[in-house]
Amino acid sequence: MALLALVGMLAAACAAPGVQSAEPSSTPEPSATVAPIPLATAVQSPAPPPVAEIVTADGSVEGTLGTYTIDGRGSDAPWLPFSSLPGIDLDAGQALTIRFVDGVGIGQWQLLLAPESDTAGLATRGVDGGSLGPLADSLTVGPLPAGRWVLQAWLFRADERGDGLTYWAVTVR
Amino acid sequence: MNRHPRIRIAGPILAAAAALTIATGSVAAHGPDPLLGGNRWAQDQVVPYQWRSGQVPPAWMAGAIDAAAADASVTRASRAATFARGAGSAASLIAYGEPTSCSAAGIACFDRASAPSSFKMWFRAHGYVFDWGTLRWCQGLATIADGCFDAETIALDEFGHVEILGHHANLTSGSDYLDAVVQTVSRARPSTGWQVHAFGRCDTARLQLEYDRPSPRALFSSCLAIATTTTLSASVTSLWIGGSTQFTASLRTTSSTENRSLANDPVSGRVVNLQRRTVGALTWTSVGTMAQSTSTEGRYVLTVSPTATYEWRAVFSPASGDGVVGSSSAVVKVTVSGCSGSACTSRTAP
């Protein structure tokens, strides 16, 4: 029961895309000066950059972190090309599991594939499906189509403190 | 050539991991930029910045950053903060070159954790070597070439973050890339969107949600669909033939918390039509366009002399490109009666 309750709580947390707080709306008159209103971001210890890893039989493969935000800070990066990324080989029909390196829960996600030849990420396609594990700390996707791909995983922390794009070079045979 | 070791994944472990799952959470694409954590700036707050000591950008980069600050201010379509390079006492710092707080792959980065007091921003130096290639700022090239990044565009992206904007969620095809400058993937010349010097409609949507529109007449970002409410009243609801009544409509956004700073705002300068129908009929007839009140925002008026008893309503139909949803008022019935003799000296029926 406790597990089911946790899953329910996490699922509910995932169902509010793009909203970080339940802050009451202000209703400023256009001519008035309104003081800044704190958002509901708790003061906590600094979180590590939101980089992800793919779980393997022998451990895990940490991807390369591109653009990310965390606790009001962030970094912007271009599309990362195949040749610059850690590689993973998959058999056709295999799924793969992705999680944050620090093990934090996953909120929302978006997965994109681009062919190896696309060095700017201009010919991306979405990866359909994908499902969170029972503790919402891992995401299982696939199988991916055969080919050599850049896989971009955009994962949001379930605690809404940030999000990051992690890249791998994936070869599906 | 891949410089990293390749790893082979074992299927059984993954199959086990997939045994218990919940399916939810895919990023909602094509809406207002998400919200970053932290405090907002005050409405229309002027935020001065200066170059970090020892990391002053070259003139071509300084010009691009200053231009981006101006772009942010001019194209915010809201009462978001504005940025301008100020005196040496400014608390906000922008740095060029190492050290930075950027990720290993990052070309620029920011820190707005100290808002609304100050922010920090960093840009990698021209020629910096990454795993993915060598950074070229277009403004730093004697002859512009493909593969360079427009410093003004990237700086505008960073100022968007400083405002409070998270990265826009594009459609998986990326076809809506131009809806936002604040993007997850910075594009180089000549890819679509490599050089954009104005906030996109989904950037300004979030800015409006957090900081409100610049005025009641201003358009709502077309990346929004803000609900409205229209009310209608009549100065007289029972009159003799020949008398007149003034209809007054009020147009506001709804008070829904989803509207955030736009909630319950008066909406001026729109087209609000007055319509009537015979009591109990289904078909409405337009009587005229109500005039914007000169004294009260969001108020529209029209005086009519009805010749029979009708039901009346005010209808707001937004123009194309205005990110609001139309609305109609509740029905107001005005009764018109015939009169004779001295009773007709008063145009208002008893």
What does it look like?
- The complex is a heterodimer of chains A (173) and B (350).
- Chain A is mostly beta strands.
- Chain A has one domain: Sandwich (Immunoglobulin-like).
- Helix content of chain A is 8%, strand content 40%.
- Chain A has one helix spanning 2-14; strands at 52-56, 59-62, 64-70, 73-78, 87-90, 96-100, 106-115, 125-126, 131-132, 139-141, 147-157, 162-172.
- In chain A, strand 1 and strand 2 form a beta hairpin.
- The model of chain A is unreliable at 1-42 (pLDDT under 50).
- Chain B has 350 residues and is of the alpha/beta class.
- Chain B folds into two domains: 32-210, Collagenase (Catalytic Domain) (3-Layer(aba) Sandwich); 228-345, SOR catalytic domain (Immunoglobulin-like).
- Chain B has helices at residues 11-17, 59-75, 151-163, 201-211, and strands at residues 6-8, 46-51, 82-85, 92-96, 108-111, 120-123, 185-186, 228-234, 238-240, 245-253, 272-278, 285-289, 291-292, 299-304, 310-316, 327-328, 332-337.
- In chain B, strands 9, 11, 12, 15, 16 and 17 form a six-stranded mixed beta sheet that branches. Chain B has a five-stranded mixed beta sheet with strand order 3-2-4-6-5. Chain B has a four-stranded antiparallel beta sheet with strand order 8-10-14-13, with no helix packed on it.
- In chain B, helix 2 (59-75) crosses helix 3 (151-163).
- The chains are: A mainly beta (173), B alpha/beta (350).
- Chains A and B meet through helix 1, strand 1, strand 3, strand 4 and strand 5 of A and strand 1, helix 1, strand 5, helix 3 and strand 7 of B.
